[in-house]
Design a protein that fits this description.
- This protein is of the alpha+beta class.
- It has a single domain, classed as 3-Layer(aba) Sandwich (Aminopeptidase).
- The chain has a seven-stranded mixed β-sheet with strand order 1-2-3-4-5-7-6, sandwiched between helices.
- A hairpin with a 5-residue loop joins β3 and β4.
- α1 packs across α2.
- The radius of gyration is 16 Å and the shape is globular.
Length: 168
């Protein structure tokens, strides 16, 4: 049985190991500097949800409050042996339940070519932000897309206000 729960300081080492394993399996050749220390801070101050199968940590998600008052959903990772959509769905459900309880919108930056990832976020109410004109040149050079999800418990007064809060 898979359990989805909030991470504690006792989970930091296991989350760090999972993140390293998932990162290495992704084929990304860049290096993760100071990841253990970073995970300690995220577990203490962010929303870190984990998935366990028995004693094994098989997934984790991370959201943290950004300076514009929105949560940044930074990671949803699963162990390569457990790459099943249901685990990512459950992690995302639990993370969004916490951000919704805080009545806060969420954004994430994802690779616009990863269709399964984009579909997962779309199923959870995320949609791509329109690109700002001054960002058009940069947008043509990047594979990143900003996805956003307003808080269902506290909708913005207008689309313009919502976009202004994200682009501030």
């Amino acid at each position: 049985m898979i359990r989805i729960l909030r991470a504690s300081k006792d989970d930091v080492a296991a989350v760090f190991d999972l993140d390293q394993t998932a990162w290495n399996a992704s084929g990304d050749e860049s290096t993760m500097y100071d990841a253990y220390t970073t995970w300690r801070a995220w577990v203490a101050h962010g929303v870190v949800i984990i998935a366990r199968h028995g004693d094994d940590l098989i997934g984790a998600s991370l959201a943290f409050l950004s300076t514009n008052g929105l949560f940044c959903l930074h990671k949803v990772v699963t162990h390569p042996d457990w790459q099943k959509p249901a685990i990512a769905n459950r992690l995302l459900d639990a993370t969004l339940a916490e951000t919704d309880a805080l009545e806060t919108a969420v954004f994430t930056v994802q690779n616009k070519h990863r269709e399964p990832t984009l579909a997962l976020f779309h199923q959870h109410g995320f949609y791509p932000l329109p690109e700002k004109r001054e960002d058009a040149t940069h947008a043509e050079l990047t594979d990143a897309v900003i996805l956003t999800r307003p808080c269902p418990n506290k909708p913005p007064s207008s689309a313009e206000d919502y976009l202004a809060s994200i682009y501030r």
